[in-house]
Amino acid sequence: MARIDDLPPLREVIAAHGLSARRSLGQNFLMDLNLTARIARQAGDLSGCDVLEVGPGPGGLTRGLLAEGARRVVAVEKDTRCLPALEQIAAANPGRLTVVGGDALDIDPGGLLRPPVRVVANLPYNVGTEMLVRWLTPETWPPFWESLTLMFQREVAERIVARPGGGAYGRLAVLAQWRTEARIVMDLPPAAFTPPPRVRSAVVHLAARARPLCDADAGALSKLVARAFNQRRKMLRSALRGLAPDIEERIASAGLEPTARAEQVPIEGFCALARALERSRASL
Fold first, then answer.
1. Containing domain of residue 234, as a range?
2. 60-67 vs 33-41: helix axis angle to the nearest 10?
3. Are residues 25 and 115 in the same domain?
4. 176 vs 129, 156, 265, 275, 276, CA distance in Å?
């Protein structure tokens, strides 16, 4: 196997630091450094970018990002056992790797990153969806990042890129595709990881749109979509009852059928309905 740097193989690093993967932290380590470099390449040319990585573990993807020319990597790691291994990588790449210990859900790394910024991560399965939703729903848009290149369970990846009309289409697809162009760029079998997970994995690349796909208030759209898909088997007129006294009229004014179900409604339709509901509130 070709080497991507002069550091020890990952198996030696894991053995030296006693880094057995912990299920409680959603850890599954990628051992093949050629594979981690390939994942890094899915984020595009990194030579002029700062990269945010969440959950680097022993640093396989971190090393791939640095080998692919990232200007600087900020790696946020909750597992303190991994910090010495990451500091070893930092020492071999002076000024190019900043290791931050702590929970990514509680840390704002914005002050450590210089634009342009890309996020690349093999996210722990137990926080992956929550992290994605946070990145997709900042207070202002465009966000601090240009793109997200993230690994998920294959089922989650399919939900992100799903189109209307299928069972995978839901709130995650609407939030992702409203503000980004999302596509699956890699598949990974369980055997690529240690320990092997019970499911297949996939890498999704999400490029931030300069402007959302269609006009809508972010908060109103998020609330609407959450309500619609919370009762996805119901018709819109039933699932959205309580959002407006004349909900059927508002649905119709958005060009939608009150008897339609959420999975049949395209993103543009949800945006139109969010605007109609906002007009309804403004007229009260």
1. 218-283
2. 60
3. yes
4. 11, 12, 15, 19, 22
